Amino acid sequence: MMQPLDEAAVFTRLDKPSPRAFFLLFYTTQCSQCKIAHARIERVIQNGTFEVDFFTCNLDDAPKVSEHFGIRSVPVCMTYNKKGEQQRVEYALKSEAVYESMVLGVNTQKGDPKSRLLGF
């Protein structure tokens, strides 16, 4: 399950690396494609075992986050490794396979992400 972060929590998470990699979904309340992206990411979470934390951030309530990243459209997904380094950014609605590949790229439990057939 994805945990919501407010504006301050996003910056705290970015400034203080944790021992786990993480996945961030940025969305807005009225964005229908964001709701689809959220559902697809939830299915990825349900279908796998990952050592990755999953977060969401509503940009309607976090204008400084939008400004910090230069976000002009949503949904936007970002992954960070356990050192807190950004690994990948995907704009717009993507397939479950793309979201899965993002997670596998920072997941420390599954091994080499290139070893799985992701369906694309």
UniProtKB/TrEMBL annotation:
Pfam families hit by this protein: Thioredoxin
Superkingdom of origin: Bacteria
Protein name, entry field: Thioredoxin family protein
Species per Swiss-Prot/TrEMBL record: Sulfurospirillum diekertiae
Phylogenetic placement of the source organism: Bacteria, Pseudomonadati, Campylobacterota, Epsilonproteobacteria, Campylobacterales
